[in-house]
Specification:
- The complex is a heterodimer of chains A (about 400) and B (about 300).
- In chain A, about 75% of the residues lie in helices and about 5% in strands.
- Chain A has 17 helices and 6 strands.
- In chain A, the strands form 3 sheets. A two-stranded antiparallel ribbon of chain A has the order 1-6.
- By secondary structure, chain B is mainly alpha-helical.
- Chain B has one domain.
- Chain B is built from 11 helices and 4 strands.
- In chain B, the strands form 2 sheets. Chain B has a two-stranded antiparallel sheet with strand order 1-4. Chain B has a two-stranded antiparallel ribbon with strand order 2-3.
- The termini of chain B are far apart.
- Classes of the chains: A mainly alpha (about 400), B mainly alpha (about 300).
- At the A-B interface, helix 9, helix 15 and helix 17 of A face helix 4, helix 9 and helix 11 of B.
């Protein structure tokens, strides 16, 4: 019944779009202007560092946001035009992301954006488990840690190149996630949350304690950066007359992985698996009654989600070159859940939320110890304002 | 040796039990996990420490000072708990559980960072006073600190009064009714909002006592002690079956016992304490998917 009304609602908005009656070139120009303005705002926001400037920038953002809200309310045609040019907007955003390192002044900012991309990669993976399949995974950081350590150890101890470590890390994370997936088959909801949380505790404590293999609290160092046909990732990137700092290499690598993952996720959501996962999320009993093997589906959801985390961990390990157990904090799993929820269980939303979640605390660094305090308030405000309208998944 | 471990286990279990009660009460009523509960657990001893610093110059007898510390901490934490309910729980009554979980993390961050920023020297561990000056007595071969006896007694008093409130008072009847069926309770004329609010006061007060217990037992408190306590308390509540108050109490003591025994008797037990605790927990949940002590599968 619910699904029916949803489909009809969508159909109606599509007709409304066609009725909007604005020429194609107008909407294309509108989308382009929108994108350029947004990109400029983002670049300015990333560049400023002084406290006073950041405060006035935030105030400006609030004013702009309120203005935009009333503008769209008064002229709904604007949002219709933008909705029609979704594909163009996505492509444009990607172009902006590619262009970003050329506009950045500080190599550290590029590094932060790369970290944001890695966080987004994890968010996409968690979205597969909780958003697609509705399985509450509270210990996602475990797969990230497993991937990072697997990749680092393959690289340092066995001397495997990064390009082999990356898929191996994903594979190892997926396989080890089955350790928690099997017990998780029997529990639901909050109990599943606790099982996965406990699993992440176990993984991180094992990493800390197995000093012979993982180096314990000392961590693993000397993880080599990727090397592409003799091109070292730790050398500045020369493109014609422009020289980008070496952080840009990693930035583009992360961006590439993120784009691939986004494509995989969107295909996955519409695939046979994705549809059966949605069915399972909505009603397990009915799905099982329809002759579908729930066990296989749940294992698949855990494994697929975890492999994204493993790949993200591998990227992190090779980017930083050093990992230790303190890198992987339990609260990050909860932050990831927040990213997925704030991103409204959508691929673009999750990526945007993940980048915001990385950049915002970095920007708030000028407030020193007030940083997380302000961040907490912002998160609280967002949840109170949007919480009731968020999609209610099974968990 | 074993009796020594048992004393430690009871003290540790009391902390877990007191924080677990809040988790299980809130879950039973509103079907939500409130991680901000951990921050309230942490605020309790900080308030108590402030009272101690103010009251130490007044030359009060130690027992009276401790009582005063606990009373003020319970009231302040309870008030904060009620405030959290007003601000963050009530507006999200109909939201999916995960939305509330994330909101509670935001509240947790705000409270924790507030202590870090506003408490003098809040970034460093604070020494928590022992009113009994580390005195102890020996019973057979077991060395028991006066403070441990005191802590166990406090926990017992707290638990007995909780039992009394839940079984013998109007409020307790309302709590049980709302836990069983909120809509039905409302139809019978029970003010659900007020009951939930008071439940948050009770849960937060008990958590504050748990935090003070931890402070007195280990001699120091820190602004970030709430997160791990919240995880342990949630674990204890799950062991007992979420929504079951007595289960949560038992779960807390079981968890304390497992932790103390694994670190005491297994080789390298301290290093692998959490591994064994959570491993056992996962195994137990596999065989009893709705909590180990829960009577019926819901």
């Amino acid at each position: 019944m619910n699904d029916m009304s949803g489909v009809q609602g969508q159909a109606r908005t599509f007709t409304a779009n066609d009725d909007a009656d604005i020429p194609r070139y107008v909407s294309v120009v509108a989308a382009a202007v929108f994108l350029v303005v947004l990109f400029a705002i983002a670049i300015i926001g990333l560049r400023i560092t002084q406290t006073a400037l950041i405060l006035s920038y935030a105030a400006g953002l609030v004013v702009l946001g309120i203005g935009w809200y009333f503008l769209v309310k008064r002229f709904p045609v604007i949002s219709q035009a933008l909705m029609r040019e979704r594909t163009l907007l996505t492509a444009g955003t990607l172009a902006c992301a590619i262009a970003y390192p050329f506009f950045a002044t500080d190599p550290y900012q590029i590094h932060v954006m790369a970290l944001g991309g890695i966080f987004a990669l994890m968010g996409l993976g968690l979205n597969v488990t909780i958003g697609f399949a509705g399985l509450a995974d509270f210990g996602y950081i475990a797969y990230y840690a497993i991937g990072a350590y697997a990749s680092a150890l393959f690289n340092v101890k066995l001397g495997l190149p990064f390009w082999l470590c990356l898929p191996l890390a994903g594979l190892v994370a997926a396989c080890l996630s089955l350790l928690v997936a099997f017990p998780a088959l029997r529990v639901k909801g909050h109990y599943l949350a606790l099982v996965t949380l406990g699993f992440s505790f176990i993984v991180i404590q094992m990493i800390t304690n197995l000093e012979k293999i993982t180096g314990g609290t000392q961590g693993v160092f000397g993880i080599r950066a990727p090397n592409l046909f003799g091109y070292e990732f730790h050398t500045p990137l020369k493109l014609g007359t422009v020289t980008l700092p070496y952080q840009a290499n990693f930035y583009y690598l992360v961006l590439l992985m993120l784009v691939l993952s986004a494509i995989v996720c969107s295909r996955l959501g519409r695939s046979r698996w994705g549809r059966v996962w949605a069915a399972m999320r909505n009603d397990e009993v009915a799905t099982e009654a329809a002759g579908i093997n729930l066990m296989k589906l749940k294992l698949l959801a855990f494994g697929t989600g975890a492999s994204f985390g493993g790949i993200a961990g591998s990227l992190y390990a090779h980017m930083i070159g050093y990992i230790d157990p303190t890198t992987f904090r339990f609260i990050e799993s909860i932050f990831l859940l927040a990213v997925v929820a704030v991103g409204n269980w959508r691929i673009t939303g999750v990526i945007a939320a993940a980048v915001l979640f990385t950049v915002l605390p970095e920007k708030l660094r000028v407030f020193n110890e007030w940083r997380l305090f302000i961040f907490g308030f912002i998160l609280l405000g967002v949840m109170l304002a949007r919480g009731r309208r968020m999609i209610s998944s099974r968990y | 040796m074993l009796s020594q471990q048992l004393v430690n286990a009871i003290v540790l279990g009391s902390m877990y039990a007191l924080i677990a009660v809040g988790f299980t009460l809130y879950f039973g009523m509103l079907n939500l996990i409130n991680l901000a509960h951990g921050a309230i657990y942490m605020i309790g001893p900080f308030v108590a420490l402030s009272v101690y610093k103010l009251g130490v110059g007044l030359d009060l007898p130690p027992l009276m000072l401790v009582m005063l510390m606990a009373a003020v901490a319970v009231v302040v934490s309870g008030a904060i708990g009620v405030g959290v309910e007003r601000v963050a729980v009530k507006p999200l009554r109909r939201a999916p559980p995960i939305v509330f979980l994330i909101t509670s993390v935001a509240v947790y961050l705000v409270l924790e960072e507030a202590v870090l920023i506003f408490y003098p020297d809040g970034a460093n561990p604070q020494v928590f006073p022992d009113p009994f000056k580390l005195q102890s007595f020996t019973l057979g071969s077991t060395v028991i600190g006066y403070v441990q006896v005191f802590l166990i007694a406090v926990a017992l008093v707290a638990i007995v009064s909780l039992h009394f409130v839940i079984t013998r008072t109007e409020l307790g009847r309302a709590i049980r009714a709302v836990t069983a069926d909120a809509t039905g309770a409302q139809m019978m004329g029970i003010d659900v909002d007020r009951t939930v609010s008071r439940t948050f006061f009770i849960g937060s007060g008990l958590a504050a006592i748990g935090g003070i217990l931890e402070g007195m037992n280990f001699g120091s408190i820190m602004f970030n002690m709430g997160f791990i306590a919240a995880i342990k308390g949630f674990t204890a509540a799950v062991i007992g079956g979420l929504g079951n108050v007595y289960g949560a109490l038992a779960g807390g003591y079981i968890l304390g016992l497992i932790e103390v025994l694994t670190s005491g008797y297994l080789p390298q037990g301290t290093a692998y304490k959490n591994v064994i605790t959570f491993g056992l927990l996962i195994l137990c949940l596999v065989f009893r998917p709705t909590g180990i002590l829960s009577r019926s599968t819901r």
